[in-house]
Amino acid sequence: MSTAADPSARDQDDSPRRITAFHRDGLTFPVTDSGPLDGAPVLLLHGWPQDSRSWDAVAAALNRHGYRTFSPNMRGASPTAAPRWRWSYRLDELARDVLTMADAIGRPVHVVGHDWGAAAAWAAATDGQHRMRSLTALSVPHPTAFLRAMLTSRQALASWYMYVFQLPLLPELMVRTPLFRRMLERTGQPADVARRDGNRLRDRTIARGGLHWYRGMPFSAPGRLRARVTIPTLQIWSDGDTAVLATGPKLSSRYVDGPFRFEVLPGVSHWIPDEAPETVTRLLVEHFEANRSGDDAP
């Protein structure tokens, strides 16, 4: 497995340089690297159907607090990292992508994920905890907590789209229409954000890549889903979320053996980083400061 960062990441005297991409097994993940070069590193993982731009406001605010942020386009979100087959999108592969990125950064990182980015972060935290300073999951709970919620609450009904996305071809056609962008707005996405994210899906490769996150779920290793997390964890959920209901996030604490904090954002939709960047930044800085070490710069 390749764990290389972009060759420009360090110069000849080994001083830090900007990273423009992460690389793994022939895939290239473009990344936005911003903030002070010596700042404590924060890896920001986006969800579907978004890309790294969903973190722009949060990243800028964290940079002002002295943190260095890395916002990559995840597997399937860019043409340079979009394998064709659904098997390549199982949770195990998403977790390995995250750990490859952490290795390339070269220091233990605070990992923050939203939506599918949160799912990838949870999975990475179960077997790469020495590479992670802390975990923050926005919206999506621990995988086992989500499965329990599917069986014991209305979550299975709220997740109807996951079943539709298992179909071949039809979902690719559906998400490329103006109707889908209007559906995003009805879930609480601001119109300009829905337009931004919807326009990406006009590219058939990008549309297929994101849908394969859902199609890869049945291939995830059961051990990965059940594994426990020991690093400090912050779970953020918003009570206006129509995709992820309250039961799962409330259950996440059962699968975390380290310090755990649960925060609810009232009146906020599923699209937390776009809709409430100031609140998210405040909670993240509190979480990072509570779980920093001597080599963290801020």
UniProtKB/TrEMBL annotation:
Cross-referenced Pfam families: Abhydrolase_1
InterPro entries membership: AB_hydrolase_1 (IPR000073), AB_hydrolase_fold (IPR029058), Epox_hydrolase-like (IPR000639)
Highest taxon above the source species: Bacteria
Enzyme class: hydrolase
Keywords assigned by UniProt, alphabetized: Hydrolase
Gene3D superfamilies tied to this protein: alpha/beta hydrolase
EC number: 3.8.1.3
Domain (AB hydrolase-1): residue spans on this chain: 41-276
Gene Ontology MF terms: haloacetate dehalogenase activity
PANTHER family: EPOXIDE HYDROLASE
Name this polypeptide is given: Haloacetate dehalogenase H-1
Organism: Nocardia otitidiscaviarum
Lineage of producing organism: Bacteria, Bacillati, Actinomycetota, Actinomycetes, Mycobacteriales
